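Thread: "does anyone have the structure for this chain?"

Original post by V.I.:
We have the sequence but no experimental structure in hand. Need at least a predicted one for the grant figures.
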Amino acid sequence: MSSEDCSVAQQYGGNVNSGWIAVLPDSWLPYVQLARLNPPAGLFLIYFPHLFGVLHAAVLQQSPPYHTLQKSVTMLGGSFFVSNAIHIWDDLIDAPLDKLVERTRHRPIPR
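Reply from O.Q.:
Generated one for you, tokens below.
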């Protein structure tokens, strides 16, 4: 297994506590890992299509920048909560299986 594969397995396996996560208190670490905030790939996969839709509608309706920014921030908040809900639901469903797999054994719910 290459070093890149190892880092990806570690990152998605719930074992990462480096980078900006290292600044947070240890008690916050399971919540950050549960929400998959590092890396925020799930959040971006949900947010960017909505952002493009908001921008497209703003151009078509000639919305003022303030309204466009307000709607974009609202969509970011909604995407954040939806992404967290999806990851938590997936972890709850997969918890029995995650305990058996070496890579996912250290995720917050199976611990």
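V.I.: this helps a lot. The two ends are 25 Å apart (CA to CA).
O.Q.: and DSSP finds four helices and no strands in the chain.
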